[in-house]
């Protein structure tokens, strides 16, 4: 399988490394506009030695290398990745993107979704948005667990993670290191956004279960630290904001049927907060699942984007979501 | 969707009830050979009032009712369900069966599997074996979790459940109520079998991950009770057997890569044993999952067999396993 990766940030680099190390995939091209990378050998940049493929700042890479699939890791938003997806599809390439909004764009971007679906079908390829969350923990895994339930009344899930390993951009979009006043201002201005993906996860669950969601309420609250916390990129004094406590509730009429919580902060353990993924399903049976510590976001997103490659290449054409396809599985541990 | 159920035991009854209560399925026939049920109305037998379909002891039901899918809940073994599957497929019906060996028959029954696969393709239908375990907890769920791992080295999973709600047949096949000597004899004679499904779960995981398993070791040990335990169908004095501690280890060469444990006993809490499903995955990341208490076996098998119906009807023709198909999801909670 011939693969091009588009975007050579932390996620794109991890995915490129996985593809190089896989026995049955070949990385045939890498697109990125960072001058630090352009013209350099991908293998050298990843510490794997010369590989023979250089990073280029040109979409022509796709037409020239004729890949089976393009992995797009450039942005969180449909508006940014749509032209990139369009270009890949028109070159007859399947697409996987980790843009959060693409995990389930059908409700949030109905027109764009119809367009991408018809384009993919016309060119005989598949488009998939995936990632650890949205894409797995707060949607696909929940949906799979409802599969052992006859009746589901209500779903409550929490993903409590540690932002400490992340860089400056993530700290800014989560408001880490701001004062409570700056946090409120950032929310209003849209510079602090919290988690991107609640409407997508809720819509994916709702479509799978056939629930007609009538209202979604999102809430973003500052996690004000009582202690000093610091990472290489940010310092948080007591009284300042250590993260964003973002949650979403979805209703069918008056009834709250889905509650998702995703408080993201640096060093949660400094105030005794245990990280983990928690899913509770209430129905004819109750399911009470925990994964402790949480599935690590960065590594898991890199893994799932790589692991879905053969499934996407083998899938029926169209714009798909994780719930439409066979379950992901690790593809890099082959012994035969 | 027109459905026939074949087998009206505890599982078959639950599935029939789900189908009757679904908005978009119709139960068009029920086959069972129990004289207690023959000729009686299915709705009446289920306490739902007259439904207009009577239990019949004739396979002609399938030809006469022309169902989209037949659910077979008659036996645990390929040899028993194979002729039933064959008959359904030759009548152009898709098939779901909860026969444990059918969850992944490709390795344990390669010739039969090839035959079923080619037959299904010739008639344009899909055959699936499913259930809570094998079919979900110790295979599909594990596979899905490996999807967020780049590299998987080793998998350890345990399903600790309570057999107390089950009937006489289950107690006998698990050796509940025997003396330790009778237990050993039962193992030798094959009357005590423990869990049916370890080779299937292991083979399903191995195929998904591309692992070339070279050896599987199974072990069945008596769970000898220190206290008095009893259910409506069995009494266990201290020193007698309360259940079967069944486990399986799978190797790639010298390396043990999969360990599955499934101790099944009555009233485990009487000796402080907490029930639950536990999955540990070791690789580039480690995943530590628990579901407490365990997903209840009977109800979950009824649910997943029902929930897979639309997916199986919509799937590509052939003999499939759970890892080949989109994740299951509850289909009976529709609000639209």
UniProtKB/TrEMBL annotation, chains A, B:
Residues 136-333 form the 2,4-diaminopentanoate dehydrogenase C-terminal domain. This is Uncharacterized protein. Gene3D superfamilies: NAD(P)-binding Rossmann-like Domain. The keyword Transport does not apply. Coiled coil: none annotated. Keywords: NADP, Oxidoreductase. It comes from the Bacteria. Pfam families: DAP_DH_C, DapB_N. GO terms for molecular function: 4-hydroxy-tetrahydrodipicolinate reductase. Residues 1-96 form the Dihydrodipicolinate reductase N-terminal domain. The keyword Hydrolase does not apply. InterPro entries: DAP_DH_C (IPR045760), DapB_N (IPR000846), NAD(P)-bd_dom_sf (IPR036291). One of its GO terms (biological process) is lysine biosynthetic process via diaminopimelate. NCBIfam families: ornith_Ord. It comes from Fervidobacterium pennivorans (strain DSM 9078 / Ven5). The lineage of its organism: Bacteria, Thermotogati, Thermotogota, Thermotogae, Thermotogales.
């Amino acid at each position: 399988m011939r693969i091009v990766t588009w975007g050579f940030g932390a996620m794109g680099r991890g995915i490129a490394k996985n593809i190089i190390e896989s026995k049955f995939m070949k990385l045939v091209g890498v697109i990125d506009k960072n001058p630090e990378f352009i013209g350099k050998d991908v293998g050298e940049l990843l510490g794997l030695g010369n590989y023979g493929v250089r990073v280029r700042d040109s979409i022509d890479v796709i037409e020239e290398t004729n890949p089976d699939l393009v992995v797009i890791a450039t942005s969180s938003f449909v508006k940014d990745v749509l032209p990139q997806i369009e270009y890949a599809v028109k070159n007859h390439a399947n697409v996987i993107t980790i843009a959060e909004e693409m995990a389930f764009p059908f409700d949030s971007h109905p027109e764009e979704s119809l367009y991408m679906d018809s384009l993919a079908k016309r060119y005989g390829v598949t488009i998939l948005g995936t990632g650890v969350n949205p894409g797995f923990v707060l949607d696909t895994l929940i949906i799979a667990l409802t599969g052992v339930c006859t009746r589901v009344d209500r779903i409550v899930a929490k993903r409590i993670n540690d932002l400490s390993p992340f860089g400056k951009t993530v700290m800014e979009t989560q408001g880490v290191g701001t004062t409570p006043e700056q946090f409120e201002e950032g929310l209003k201005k849209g510079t602090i956004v919290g988690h991107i993906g609640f409407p997508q996860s809720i819509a994916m669950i709702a479509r799978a279960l056939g629930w007609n969601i009538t209202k979604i309420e999102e809430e973003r609250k500052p996690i004000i630290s009582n202690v000093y916390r610091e990472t290489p990129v940010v310092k948080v004094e007591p009284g300042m904001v250590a993260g964003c406590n973002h949650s979403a509730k979805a209703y069918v009429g008056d009834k709250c049927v889905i509650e998702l919580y995703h408080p993201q902060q640096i060093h949660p353990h400094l105030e005794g907060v245990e990280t983990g993924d928690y899913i509770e399903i209430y129905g004819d049976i109750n399911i009470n699942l925990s994964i402790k510590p949480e599935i690590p976001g960065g590594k898991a997103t890199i893994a799932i984007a790589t692991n879905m490659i053969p499934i996407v290449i083998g899938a029926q054409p169209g714009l798909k979501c994780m719930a439409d396809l066979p379950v992901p599985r690790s593809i890099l541990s082959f012994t035969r």
